[in-house]
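Worked problem 6 (solution included).
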Amino acid sequence: MNTKRFRVAVAMMALLTACISAGCKKFLDLDPLSTWRDETFYSSASEVEMALAGIYSGMANDDMYGYKFNVVLESGTDEMYTNASAANWGAARYAYTSSSDEVQNIWLHFYSMINLVNQLEKNLDPQMFSEEQTNLYLAKARFMRAFAYFNLANWFGPVPIRLTPSANQDDNHVAASPVLDVYQQVERDYLFAVEHLLHANNPDYVPGEPNKMAAHGMLARLYLRMGGFQPYLAENEADCYFDNPGQYFEKARQQCEIIIQDGWHHIVPYATDPQSYRNHFMNYLQNRYDLRESLYEVSFGNLIEMGLNVHGRMGNINGVEFVGTSDIPRGFANVNASVALYNRYAAEDTRMTWNIAGYRNNYSSANQRYTMSYIFDRPLHQEFAIGKYRRWEPTDMEALRTQRSIVDAPYTILNNVTGSATDPNYTSINFPLLRYSDVLLMHAEAIIGGRFGTADATVEAVNSLNIVRERAGLDPYIGSTQHDAFFNELVDERLRELCFEGLRKQDLVRWNLLREKLDQLDEAIRFNSFYVETDAFHQTYREPGITFDRSRHFLLPYPLQEVTINTQLDQRFPW
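Solution. The predicted structure is:
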């Protein structure tokens, strides 16, 4: 991690400049930049809010939730795979090393966020605010620190715990703490957050910031991870679990039930709105907040409006193919919805046609015209794109479905936000981090104790599953409530509901199912009727399953620059 002394004033200049140019007079009373110091900066509400905005924006760039963390590193599961064989997409195929940009940059960004939190925590002047306001500021910051450490532990395992600001090179020399210790630090920060954060229904709550029920949900996610498989904790995989893992599922259940029994969050049922799933995601596309279902999200649109230099590429990198000229809602379709996901949907499931686009717009430079094609029934097509964050769609889908291809077909821009609609690379599309449907599915899983529990599904577990199913237009679950059968149903349901939301790979890791699902994916590819042995794209889809090595790929290697700078951190075998 870069240990040069960080000054919040520098990091927040973009916000300050934007607010001044927009006429935000409350910022004009700040001291001149030359007088800003770490120890005095956090002495007014505007300064603390600027510092918090800087922490939030740490997730809103190409390296993080712009696309490299939540798309590239998340690829290579039964959810999605890349169609790109180029070296710069190697991380999506498990072809990364300790010097790969994707590996180095998520470490750097998460620890930069942590350092910002530590600075705020150290320098916040409680004499300038009420106790309630001081704790609220700390709760927002500690929520973000917990989020950062949780992801670091999930992806790297044991990592250094830093709870004070880094001021010089010596501060960088910190040994990795056992992963249990990291998770316990995450727990402490989230527990503080649930006590002091505002509820999202509070009139003073600012959408896009951490809130009380989001912290409860993140605690549930933490506890499910603590109760699951812990990669490389011991030589024998059967011993790669914390002591008494059942305790964590009970804690996860309690956290989910706090949210459920609170009663404010919900999902709009199919009976009320048959397009409920689609309409919820339209909110992310159009920079609207559906606080009832979305407990927490990366707010690209809001941060852009605040004047921060953030970069989101949702719907662009992982969007529907549309390239060729300017002034179009460009999509590159660098990753595909997997054939395994396609096979998991029932025809009547309304989520299928939203999560999988099934169309493309291909430009011919020869005649300078576009040909829109219907490919929904060709799941191995090289541009079988993700639809969840689509920037555009055919104006007449039924005509396209009937005719299969239409030259210069009309289309509708869905991400119709000013400055984003036709930007060639960046979009304002927000990215969900925790939705209420996830809370319901975590609740059902917690009740049965995860993969290796023994409890059968209760009425409450089935009800939580059925709320999610009903919104998708499906009948109530009538399958077995026996533990293993119900768990397998939850594995599939989380895929159908939460695909492309940055959760699948870590779900498969904590269940110790990643290898098994990659094998099943390879089989689904090879036995699909469109599979061709000599097709280069089809072989690229298979590459993650071929490359994956369970002795190393459950976790990322420590970044090369970190083990070089930090003399207390040794690279993990076999990296």
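Discussion: DSSP finds 23 helices and nine strands in the chain.
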